[in-house]
């Protein structure tokens, strides 16, 4: 696992190395010959890995197709579930394989071993009377079989790195059950629009409350609203490693007077209300490292308070409201009557702002610079070709010979074709126009790729953006929905 990451930035991070070697030593045992990391040479394994990658690259199209079909055949029975007699597609039916934990930023657990999840770790949820799905590993059995029709998860297991967190398997986003659930969530976020100002006025008033519990609830609600923090420690895939309000420790949070807050798990400093900064400094007072910041608060209390503010209100509804209202506002203000590419650029930038709000970050791909370099080379090549065509156009207009191509072959001499001058110039102008369009598209694609290199757009788009906003914008500005 470590060997195949030899060419990544993680392989040189001390925390990553120490955590990996600590977990590896536990597997090797006390009496194993390997004692020091610096004496280990992972090169032979890494070279084998490169050879295997090269073999896959050299496969023919037919071989790749055969492999895909074989894989699909093996997975077909896991891809579907029957809900109320209707066959529905399952979303994430695969369990994450063993590997080394990476995380985003300087996560203290980076490099730790993510052990293999066994069937005995997994609780499944099926209908009463339904046959229990066959365990895929002979001799193994499921941890537990439940029959709970009040929840939407199909299976869950403990996260191998953070034991208090859980991983779930759900129906696919295209399923009717998920669609119904999403519609209810988006409707709640629309209702929040009618309550949001009252809620904000109320928690602002309680920033200076003498009742410590009330003051902590007010600050926690503010953080949920403005920084998109969670109530507990639940987390989205693709989201930077975060803490929820009720799990924040005093050493997670640093106040920088008069109005800035540094959250160690987000890796950045954000501006907040001065009264919030003062309140958090008070919550810090007299506490040792590792102590709870909101010591008068737990997830149950905070969830109950949110529900009192508006029935069904949760931290997720706040995130959905703020994400959707941000998208709608940016699209309304910045979309102009430009080209399709320009409109798509506006949408992507709006989506990026939403990802920032929701703290959906990703590490820059190790191949990003190389990809950008290749794109620049292609653009330069197209610009060179366009310059050549402009010279040719000038020669044709003047009735001169076009000369030779770079390989020495003569270009077709259009000079004598005076009678066909208009036809010749039109042909060259059309080629120039085509190249200009290609260059414009590549420039915009390059800009989008560079702008979005640290933003994970998928999670916010799937979970927090009301699709009706996107659909309405696409119809209004004649943008194909699949391009958004």
Automatic annotation (TrEMBL):
Task: Name a single GO biological process.
Answer: DNA replication
PROSITE patterns assigned: TOPO_IB_1, TOPO_IB_2
Q: Which reaction does it catalyse?
A: ATP-independent breakage of single-stranded DNA, followed by passage and rejoining
Coiled coil feature spans: 50-77
* Pfam families (alphabetical): Topo_C_assoc, Topoisom_I, Topoisom_I_N
Q: Where is the DNA topoisomerase I eukaryotic-type domain?
A: 100-478
Active-site annotation: 464
Q: Does the keyword Ligase apply?
A: no
Q: This protein's superkingdom?
A: Eukaryota
Q: What is this protein called?
A: DNA topoisomerase
The taxonomic lineage of its organism, from the top, reads: Eukaryota, Viridiplantae, Streptophyta, Embryophyta, Tracheophyta
């Amino acid at each position: 696992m470590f060997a195949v990451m030899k060419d990544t930035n993680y392989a040189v991070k001390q925390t990553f190395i120490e955590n990996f070697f600590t977990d590896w030593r536990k597997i090797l045992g006390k009496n194993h010959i390997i004692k020091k990391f610096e004496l280990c040479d992972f090169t032979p394994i890494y070279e084998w890995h490169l050879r295997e990658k090269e073999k896959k690259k050299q496969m023919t199209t037919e071989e790749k197709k055969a492999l895909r079909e074989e894989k699909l055949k093996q997975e077909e029975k896991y891809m579907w579930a029957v809900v109320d007699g209707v066959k529905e597609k399952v979303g994430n039916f695969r369990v994450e394989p063993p590997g080394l934990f990476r995380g985003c930023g300087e996560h203290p657990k980076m490099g730790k071993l993510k052990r293999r999840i066994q069937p005995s770790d997994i609780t499944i949820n099926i209908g009463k009377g339904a046959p229990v799905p066959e365990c895929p590993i002979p001799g193994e059995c499921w941890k537990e079989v439940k029959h709970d029709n009040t929840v939407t998860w199909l299976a869950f297991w403990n996260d191998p790195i953070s034991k208090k967190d859980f991983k779930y398997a759900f129906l696919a986003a295209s399923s009717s059950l998920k669609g119904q659930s999403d519609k209810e969530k988006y409707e709640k976020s629309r209702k929040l629009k009618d309550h949001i100002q009252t809620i904000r006025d109320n928690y602002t008033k309680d920033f200076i409350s003498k009742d410590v519990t009330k003051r902590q609830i007010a600050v926690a609600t503010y953080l949920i609203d403005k920084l998109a923090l969670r109530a507990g420690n639940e987390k989205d895939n693709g989201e930077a490693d975060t803490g929820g309000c009720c799990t924040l420790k005093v050493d997670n949070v640093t106040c920088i007077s008069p109005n800035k807050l540094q959250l160690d798990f987000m890796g950045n400093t954000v501006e907040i209300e001065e009264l919030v900064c003062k309140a958090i400094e008070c919550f810090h007072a007299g506490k040792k490292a590792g102590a709870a910041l909101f010591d008068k608060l737990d997830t149950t209390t905070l969830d109950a308070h949110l529900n009192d503010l508006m029935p069904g209100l949760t931290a997720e509804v706040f995130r959905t409201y703020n994400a959707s209202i941000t998208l709608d506002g940016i699209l309304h203000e910045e979309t102009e009557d430009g080209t399709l590419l320009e409109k798509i650029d506006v949408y992507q930038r709006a989506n990026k702002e939403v990802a920032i709000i929701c703290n959906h970050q990703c590490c820059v791909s190790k191949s990003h610079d190389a990809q950008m370099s290749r794109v620049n080379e292609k653009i330069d090549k197209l610009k060179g070709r366009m310059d050549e065509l402009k010279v040719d156009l000038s020669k044709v207009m003047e009735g001169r010979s076009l000369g030779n191509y770079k390989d020495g072959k003569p270009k077709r001499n259009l000079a004598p074709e005076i009678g066909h001058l208009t036809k010749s110039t039109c042909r060259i102008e059309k080629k120039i126009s085509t190249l200009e369009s290609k260059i414009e598209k590549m420039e915009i694609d390059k800009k989008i790729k560079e702008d979005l290199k640290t933003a994970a757009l998928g999670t916010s788009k799937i979970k927090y953006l009301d699709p009706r906003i996107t659909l309405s914008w696409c119809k209004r500005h004649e943008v194909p929905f699949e391009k958004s």
